[in-house]
Amino acid sequence: xxxxxxxxxxxxxxxxxxxxxxxxxxxxxxxxxxxxxxxxxxxxxxxxxxxxxxxxxxxxxxxxxxxxxxxxxxxxxxxxxxxxxxxxxxxxxxxxxxxxxxxxxxxxxxxxxxxxxxxxxxxxxxxxxxxxxxxxxxxxxxxxxxxxxxxxxxxxxxxxxxxxxxxxxxxxxxxxxxxxxxxxxx
Length: 186
Fold this sequence. Notes:
Layout: H1 4-15, H2 31-40, H3 50-68, H4 72-83, E1 87-94, E2 97-104, H5 110-128, E3 134-136, E4 145-147, H6 160-181
Antiparallel strand pairs: 1-2, 3-4
Helix pairs in contact: 1-5, 3-4, 3-5, 4-5
């Protein structure tokens, strides 16, 4: 697994299912929502048990703590801890290049797969882009967080289509209200 962009996206999506992001509504409240989340992110065909839901909620808190406190050593240690119990790390040679490959244990659960994915995403971003890519959402009413994997590194919102749009609409309305208050404008 060397697609850290996809994996860090899964980590971002996971932390943004938390109740504090959605003003009290948990977006992973039950096993059905966990199964849907796993399938949406290509993590399928693993059994989902009640213990997995609790483990994923704990994982969500752990990943959020890493994003909220992005010191390089802390990120590496935390992400390594996420990956260590979930799978096996090997060196693979493909078409003349050597790379690391990670595979899940045969008895792995969906929480193991998500932990491994989040850990790989965090480690990849730290290595390739740096610790400054871990951020809180820039929308004033949002408590979300994200890992910025964009080329220029200027992402501002955890969910650009939602938070970014809300900020843009609020700014547009404020400009229109200000224009109405100025003399000589409509």
